[in-house]
Amino acid sequence: MNALTSLSAFLADQHQWYTVPRVVKTFHGRLAEAPWHDLDLKAATLAALCAAAAGPLDEKVWITRLAEQTIRQIVPRALRAAADQHPEAKHRAALRAAADRCCLEGSEAAARAAWAVAASVARATRAAWAAADAARAAAAAAAPCLWDPAAAALVAAVAVAVTPAERDQILCLSVKIAIEALPK
Q: CA-to-CA distance for 105 and 89, rounded, in angstroms?
C-alpha cells in the first residue's frame, strides 16, 4: 500500500475528511501537491493535520495564526537560505536582517519589507527569488480571509531547500504550524 492509499484509507476509516473545514482541506491540498520526498512521512503528516482539524473552526482566526507563524518560521528560513547563497556581504546582511524582523514581528509589514529586500537582491541567486516569493505570499496571507498565499509561501520556501530531506522538514514544519494554529 503506498502512502497516498494509506492516507485515503485512514481518512475514510476515521470519517474525518467530512468534518475537516474547507479552508483546511484547501491547505491540505496545496501541501499534498508539494514535492515530498518521503511519501510515508507525507501520508502521516497530512493525516495528522486532518485529525487535528476535524470539527468546527473559526477560519479567519486560523488563517491569521497560520499567516503569522508562516512569517515567523518559514519565511526566515527562505531568507537565510538566500543569504547563505548570496556572494555579497551587504546583501547577506540585509536578507538576514529581514529574516530577523520576520521572526520578531510575524507581521504583514515585516513580510512586505522582506519581500522588498529579497527582490532587490534577487538578481544574483535563485534562492533570493524564492525568498522574495515566500515573503510576498506570506504578506498577502496576513490580509483577512486569504488562506492560499500562506500555502504559496510554503511552496516558495520549499524551493530553497537544498536536499529532499530538508524540503520534507519544511513541509512538516508548515503542518506543525497549521495544527498549532487550530483552537485548543
A: 24
